[in-house]
Amino acid sequence: MSKLFITVLNMSITASFAALIIIFARMLLRKSPKIFSYALWAVVWFRLICPVSFESALSLLPGQNLMLYNVDTLANPNALSEQYGAGGAVKQTLESTLTAVNTSSNASLIDTAVKIAAAVWILGIAIILCYSAISYLKLRNRISTATFYKDNIFETDQIHTPFVLGLMRPRIYIPTGLEQKELDYILKHEQIHIKRRDYVIKPIAFFTAALHWFNPIVWISYFLMSKDMEMSCDEEVIRQSKEDIRVSYSRSLLSLSMKQSGLLAPLAFGESNIKARIKNIINYKKPVLWAICPACILVVAISMALAANPSDKIEYLASAEKFLEYKTDYVGDASKVGNIISLLDFPENVNYSYFELHTENVPYGITVHLNTDAKTRNKYTGAINQTPFEKNAIIMFSLIGNVDYINFNLTDGQNDYLIQYTKDQADAMVGKDVREFSLDKKTFAQLLKIGDKIEESFINENKNSSITTIGGADGPLKMYETDKVDKSEQIVAFAWEVINKDIAYYEENPAVKIIDSKITRLERIESFDDLTDKTIDVYALEYRLLPEDLSKVVLAGGMDVDEDGWLKETSSMGSPLLVVSRDDDSIEFIGIVMTGTAVEEGSLKTAVKELLEKNQ
Amino acid sequence: MSKLKLFDAEYKLMDIVWEHEPINSTELTKICRQKLGWKKSTTYTMIRKLAQRDILKNENATVTALLKRKDVQKYESEALLEDKFNGSLPAFLAAFLQDKKLSEKEAKEIQKMIEEATK
Predict the structure, then answer these.
(1) Do B35 and B65 belong together in one domain?
(2) In chain A, which among 279-308 make CB contacts under 8 A with chain B?
(3) What is the number of domains present in chain B?
(4) Are B53 and B103 within one domain?
(5) Transmembrane region positions (chain B) (predicted)?
(6) Domain of B17, in residue numbers
(7) Dihedral pair phi/psi, residue A508, rounded to 5°
(8) Which of A14, A143, A185, B52 is least enclosed by beta carbons within 10 angstroms?
(9) Residue A438 banded pLDDT, cuts 50, 70, 90
């Protein structure tokens, strides 16, 4: 019930903005045929009834989710914790912290308030429905003895204003004792109402207004719409008449119905606003084409602009607000850091698992562990694809006070891939201290927008230098910059080729099984422009292999094991260096040289040259 | 006998009764349906009400008028409205919802507006 109420409340707020704009537009249109003003109200009623719409940047509306976001979240304190990934202990602590924060008295108070308001709202609707049912029955009773006049027209002396009643088979009811001329006008007027289905529109409008009974703007809209409905109907009678009947029609209106109908006739056509109507009739001129066109365009434009939901910019503000709630000065604030991470948007197939804080020593860091599949992981080894993480890193740096580096560790359960960002990089990306963006909602929304733009432009342009990071989980690692970062994906693939050969080598011994592997370093250490017509790059490669049972592995000379029981890449020849040739549009794996060889020969260049010659 | 005032619908029904009396009530409902567009129940309710006021009588399913046509007159529709309706709503609701009559002054203003437009 509370949820429904909040939906209606949101619709009410949105529709109110639409109504205010339409009230203004009506003023512009006051010289135009009233059918345009009447048509404009359709969009308000659309907004009052339909909670969803399409999005457009041209929307005239402010964001509706802006206003009531808080109520919504606070009313559902569990919604946030549900968003958490499956990360074991960290998740558990996070959840308990979260629950403690969110189910505080404040939230439950708002929750209760919403519940009470929803109850009052329902009660109000019930009262209005009862009231309209009673007045409807009363009216029915009064016209039960109405006598057949002709066609669908009935007369009775129990009413004093003509009206149309009935949804399926609408009937025109007229008072007795009308003069023939007046009768002609009235019947014409009512028949136009029937033709335009106004007898259906008005009850729908009334019940919609009843749904939003707490909103005075809705009632104002209802009455203005009724007025426009009547006036456009009057105009239609005059337009259809061959002679100029403006004066006699006005006289009939005046003599017949010196009445104004209030709420009492929600379902029928009373005569309302006689004075305004007569004024309108007298001033009415048959419309000419050149005057109608602009009015048409205005109505269509306004209707479209108000029917559409605003796109993007509002969402930025809304999510900025969410993020800023968890702004913190200390990376050690696990609860807030967790909340921020849970609000981040990760790409498809990448799911947040848990996070790790590196707070024992400076530099302080955060590692966000993400689950994914091998294919997705490989995709994000290319720097060009890493922009979603870049954006998330910027957000985190902006919100978390003293964090120096942020890692995103992508794992497919087999292999890990680590993307690392430092605070300096984040500052460089946004052009100033990224922390400054978290000062208020507006600036932070800007940051979110910048983040999206970075993402977009990278995807669109598919070029430019960026920071690529490849490394291991042993703490902050070096990054390097390259002009052709989109090639790095290839280099990683080459590295895995080398690693897989090594794994195959170990597994030649049937007792040995390598159950995990990871790259701990892949860094360009040298670049030669003068060896061939292409540029030759040399990458240092370090990796770790995890055997199922270390004792089964025969460690030959130079082979080494780290403290966690992972095999190192080293051998008697040293570590492998990847040699790669590249030009503007291709990259080619040439082979490996070992650090041992390179050192013994005294020159890396010589070793690379030898490799090139061997390959020719 | 003083003249009795009848509402429009009552008068129309009596019109039929005067023309056809004595008339079988079933027959009367058929004529009313045809001429007035009434449902059977509407006609019977009307017969009952008029019988209570001794304007007609309904015995053995036969309807006869107790008053002559010249003794009754049709209610003028303008006269009835206010009194009839005012009593039926609580005062506060009535105040809020009652149709407001155009004041004489307003009517004159509008009249003037119309006259000016004809010039």
Answers:
(1) yes
(2) 279, 282
(3) 2
(4) no
(5) none
(6) 8-69
(7) -60, -30
(8) B52
(9) confident
